[in-house]
Amino acid sequence: MRQPNWLADTGLALILLLTLQLVVFGCSGGSSSTADGSSTADQQNDQSVIADLGVDRVDGSTEELPPADLSLEDSVAPDTADLSGEDQSVVDLTASDTADVEPDELQPSDAGDGVLADQGGTDVELDLVSDIQADGATDIGVDLVNDAQPDVSTDTASPPDTNDADDDGGSQSDGGLDTLVPDQVTCEQDTLRCTNDVLETCDANQWVTAANCSNGCNPKSDPAVCYPPNTWKSVALGPFGAVCAINLDGSLWCWGDNGDGQLGINSTIRSVVPALVGTLDQKWKMVSVGGDHSCGIRDDDSLWCWGNSDDGEAGVASSLVPVNISDGMSWASVSAGDDFTCAIEKTSLALYCWGSDKYGQLGAGATDQTGSTKRKIGSSKWLSVSLGTSHACGIIQDSQNPDRGTLHCWGRNNQRQLGQGADTDDKDAPSPVGSALWWDVKAGSSHNCGRQIDNKMYCWGNGSYGKLGKASPTAAGDPLKVTDNEWTMVTAGSNQSCGLVGTSLYCLGNNTDGELGIGAPGDSVNATPQLITGQWKFVASGSGATCAIRSDDTLQCWGNTFNGQVGNGLLGWVIEPSNLQSWPTFSMLSAGFRATCGLTTGSLLYCFGDNESGQLADDTTLQKREPTKSNDDLWLKISLSQKHGCAIRNDNKGFCWGGNIRGQLGIGVANTTLVTQPSQINPGAPAETWSDLSAGYDFTCGVKSDKSLYCWGYNASGELGLGAPNKGQSFNLPQLVDSGEWRMVSASGSSSFACAIKVVQDEADSGTLYCWGNNFYGQLGTSDTSERLIPTQVQSALWRMVSAGGNLTCGIQKDQKLYCWGSNSVGSVGTGSVQSSISLPAKVNDESWKWVSAGGGHVCAIRSDDTLWCWGNKFDGRLTLDPDTADHQRTPLLIPHPAGKGWIDVVAGGSHTCAVDSDHVAWCWGSVVDGQLGLGISAYVWSPESPTFGK
Fold this sequence. Notes:
This protein is mostly beta strands. The protein is built from 4 helices and 64 strands. The strands form 16 sheets. The chain has a 7-stranded antiparallel sheet with strand order 23-24-25-26-27-28-29, with no helix packed on it. The chain is elongated and about 95 Å long.
């Protein structure tokens, strides 16, 4: 039997190679897209800064600009001298600021514990990075390790904290999580080394694991192989820190302890994030994790096992990858114990067991049957079997009730886990537990829980920590009813029991490692079931950790994660449900000034980036650098602007959140209090429904389900389309603009104008285009620069879609040709013209297009062949161009997919771009000052990278 290894070997420290780039501040907004092909573009214009917006400074203050427009050609002079933290608009560190360190120059003995010596025969380049001190000031130092605590002086190296329980080189002494994760940076063996030719980039924002290296995982070119979508159908936890789960697509992923190869990933190095077992085209029906091995059944009913097999528990010799042990039979279910295995044959429902028989746990009538030979247990038909550490329980089918049966247990009985009353003798054959009929049973390490046909939860065996539902630690040899609730599922771990009452999840027992998931580690005895927030459909427990699948199919884990069993990339403790580090799949995205939101393929709202106005809708104003679920509602469309956002829920009701000083949320009040979670538009009409919403700069427009057009918020330049008498006023409830039939609307997120497409009879997918509001750059397409206070038709063509950006508009006509107009100082119109503004729609080229998003100073669009093209402002990496490129991009530039896949959605934000590929994987690039790329870092990204669900 393999003992648990809570304190893993010290790993290599993660070196952050972050080089500060030249920061150019402009004003920009956001854009959004909708699931039905509409676009709500809302960007701040980068090439001209509006006087009342100001320039954001690094310290959070705002520098007001003079009334005159400020062109990027004029630029804002960078402050390169002041490093005090008072005004750090720009810190330019060139190549001369880096130092090459030869392999023999940097050793742990020279620099202190936790400092990585280069062992690969290449130079280690150390870049100067900016460390934020605890007092808010900034020092420029060389980071040799990734400190978990803020620096108080210029760094050289951070020694390991002697009070740190797992002593992995981190610097946290308060019992919290260490940032440094062993086995996560490089692979020691030459054949497993994580090099540029294998991973293309081995940068600090990816959790690159040794296991992923051995699988050839390339997160930049094929993220689906590296991390799964966070949609799952089952999960299994072992008794010593290994976890496996089956994704909804049928692929198998494992993580956690792997000392005996029980993860099946051709390695014995643990993985702190999900690692793919085999290949994506191998589909699995079930999986079970034992102490040192695992087994599963594929969709063709074949049986596979892997890991240690010293006692024959894997059915073959020890293996680091799954091995077929079907023996010509089809299999219905399998359960892996500490060092033995049992499975039920599909046709006959016969039970077979193999492996260690030290305590009679094979149930074959003796204790000397150890080995890999499958031994048939009696002649009964079995409905299910579940294995604990050295005992097993199963249900024999009742002849009169084929969906239920009598409960039998066998094996070790030192804690009365076999349910034989006061008897503590081991049993080498299945022994009945009373005469009641049972639906199911789950065996824990030394206790069990199950459901009788009255749907009550019963537990027995080791009684410590209250996991049987009673405070006394006395072992119980007879099943004890936990509560009078009707349970739909139960499970037993090492020292906790969990179950579902409908969609409510409860756990009881030990909580010293946070395994109850109730928000804080605490009492070791919890005999009363504790409610875990949320709605759930599946739960499994293991050693000090619990994992459960929510009603939306997302998997979350919590508890002890010293072997990485919570799967979120961290070691230590996780005290409440935490997402795995896994790959999100999106149906659509929306980009604001420095924030991004998206709807997953499961219709959940996830956001990341700047949140100072509550625009991430997560009931906080805290910045999020990784995708964070905003709430549990399901959504149809999303539109994000500079300071607020709006969305249509799956019941077609409209909601907005964020800044509301001008009444732009439409909730019946204008106030300075931030609204940090979705609030229904026009609450006095709770049944009101919407087909489209677009969040603009301090205003919002929408199309109701009856196709009438409404706007509300600030009407500074006529952007509400309400006519001259209402110019300059604010409205905190939706105002009718036109009662005709409208298809979609797009409000600029950084300027005071909007455009919309009106229905034309007998036209299924196109209509006439109207624009209104500010027109200083000709963005209304009316051949002049005069503002329009009511919707004004743009030429006579028919249009499929329109996107209103920052002082720029783009649209696709019925013939799929793309046109842009408005400000063109940085080439945003895309025709190659150097004219500063264009006031009539100008055809970009003769290609056919299907999607466009106009951003702050750049535009991105998808051609009919699913290729992605961008143009306009080159700065911050938003076009993937080298920062030293001489001029802005004035014609479409191809943005290749890292793996050659097609694109289905793109949004151009203030200074960043995000897109969704044909696999529904999101990719972002450009500025990440406020975390708007979802990569967990502060830097500039010059090529597409994918955010992950994680910490």
